[in-house]
Design brief:
5-stranded parallel beta sheet; phosphoprotein; nucleotide-binding; Homeodomain-like_sf
Length: 458
């Protein structure tokens, strides 16, 4: 808000009523009120960016209908209220359609209704500032290497691609099995990009019926179809200047794919039931667990849209291929669950760790979280034992327990070394002596972050 606090423009050619409005609105010491008698005068002053404008309908140099568009072109978000002696209902409706926020007829209740309109405007501005502040704080805290946990070689490659994606507005396609954290990657890119203060709008394509998808993405006008009782903006408009995350893009009906392609090419949308073209500036991130190229060959996904969306591809490896990350993530989930549920600190036993390392995790990180949450509940003491993780795994449909799945020799060796380091409080010389391993080998693995040792110890 400008000036003292809240800047109001009053446009009224009747000098007496102009003075009355000016005096009335100035009663609040937070208000700075500026009066005008012609549309030209007000337009010249728009660079001051008022928060609120009252317009008379009939003016010496035109009318409010003509002036509305000129104001909106300069200040699209300013609140505009028409205050007029005109009592024609159709005129009021036309003005509201053209962009007026409210229409007040000059009578004994005008002043009270103006107070309400101004109060609503202030609340809207305050809410917007709170959201902007929150988005700024989120972006500051959103260090993706903390939000996305992992030290494995495949994840280091993912982090490198996220950094590259955040530097530009290139379209990003995130691929990987269900539960690998594709939504976290999309958020990491957005909140580390130049668009971080703008909206991040996720859309799960698989969760929306095909017949409602066009309205969901592009919006609709009132009465455009049965059930459309009000106008609604779509996700593209909602994400303007920000990022639109289209999750499970492979589930989109092929008839809508052509419309999506046109929007991506033309950078403009048209609401359902309208002919008005609305320009949009949106960064696109898509995700899918499907092989889209295979879907193209099957004829269920448009080839031209495929190449339009491919952009920079970031493939998330399944949890079973992420080396020692499963234990890092498990530790994070244990700490999170205990904190949220006021439980004492817990830790995984050596046998439980080995069981998790051997397990294949068909549901990936999402499944791991379910296993850990239930294990924390089943464990009565500080230690989460093998019985707890085995019991949980056995309840998972189609799960395979740890003893039935092979583990690589390197992975087993690294886990054995990690367990002994923790057992002997990260005393490298002691572990080297006990396991008959060269201390230089241990130091090299620690330096390469293949073994995890607290910085204050190493």
């Amino acid at each position: 808000m400008k000036g003292k606090n809240f800047l109001i423009f009053v446009l009224e050619d009747d000098k007496l009523y102009n003075t009355i409005l000016h005096h009335f609105l100035s009663l609040n010491p937070e208000h700075e009120v500026k009066s005008f008698t012609t549309g030209a005068e007000l337009l010249k002053a728009l660079h001051q960016k008022p928060d609120f404008i009252t317009l008379d309908y009939s003016l010496p140099d035109g009318n409010a209908m003509q002036l509305l568009k000129q104001i909106r072109d300069v200040l699209p978000e300013v609140r505009i209220v028409i205050v007029s002696a005109q009592q024609d209902v159709q005129t009021a409706i036309d003005l509201l359609k053209k962009g007026a926020d409210d229409y007040l007829v000059k009578d004994s209740e005008t002043q009270d209704r103006l107070w309400v309109a101004i109060k609503n405007c202030k609340e809207k501005i305050s809410l917007k500032k709170e959201i902007e502040t929150l988005q700024t704080e989120v972006s500051k805290k959103y260090n993706f290497q903390k939000a996305i946990i992992g030290n494995s070689t495949p994840m280091k490659q993912v982090f490198s691609l996220i950094e590259k994606a955040a530097l530009t507005n290139i379209t990003v396609s995130v691929t990987g099995e269900t539960g690998t954290g594709k939504d976290l990657v999309a958020k990491a890119i957005h909140f580390n990009s130049t668009r971080k203060s703008r909206p991040f709008v996720p859309v799960n394509i698989a969760a929306i019926p095909a017949e409602l998808m066009e309205s969901e993405l592009f919006g609709h006008e009132k009465g455009s179809f049965t059930g459309a009782v009000t106008q609604r903006i779509g996700k593209f408009e909602e994400a303007n200047k920000g990022t639109l995350f289209l999750d499970e893009i492979g589930e989109m009906d092929i008839t809508l794919q052509a419309k999506l392609l046109r929007v991506l090419q033309e950078k403009e949308i048209t609401r359902v039931g309208s002919n008005k073209i609305i320009p949009v500036d949106v960064r696109i991130i898509v995700a899918t667990h499907r092989n889209l190229l295979a879907e193209v060959k099957k004829g269920t996904f448009r080839e031209d849209l495929y190449y339009r969306l491919l952009g920079l591809n970031i493939h998330l490896p399944p949890l079973r291929n992420r080396e020692n990350d499963v234990l890092l993530i498990a530790k994070h989930f244990i700490e999170q669950f205990c904190s949220e549920n006021n439980l004492p600190k817990k830790y995984l036993s050596l046998e439980a760790k080995k069981q998790l390392l051997n397990y294949q995790f068909p549901g990936n990180i999402r499944e791991l979280k379910s296993i850990i949450d239930l294990s924390c509940v089943m464990s009565d003491g500080e230690e989460i034992e093998l019985a707890h993780t085995q019991r949980v795994s056995a309840t998972m449909p189609g799960s395979i327990t740890s003893l039935e799945e092979p583990v690589t020799l390197r992975r087993f060796t690294l886990q054995l070394l990690q367990d002994y380091l923790e057992k002997y409080d990260y005393d490298v010389l002691k572990v080297a002596q006990v396991l008959n391993v060269g201390k230089s080998t241990l130091y090299r693995l620690i330096k390469n972050k293949e073994l995890n040792v607290p910085e204050k110890v190493y």
